[in-house]
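sanity check this record:
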Amino acid sequence: MHASSLDAIVNAQSILMQEHDVSSETALGLLVWAATDRGVTVLEVALSICGSRPQSRSADVPLRASA
């Protein structure tokens, strides 16, 4: 895994921690859960979180659960 890939995952983890007030372990778990649920990689989920975040507002769209 390249450093840029790891940076994206760590950034997404940080965003989740700040916006949803969760621990680093929970944030990483959410990334893994979302990747598993969607059949994609954790990196793809992380990039979608980092890419969908507006400059001045929160964005929780990538982690909405479906019943």
Remarks:
- The helical segments are 3-20, 24-38, 42-52.
- The radius of gyration is 11 Å.
- The first helix runs from residue 3 to 20.
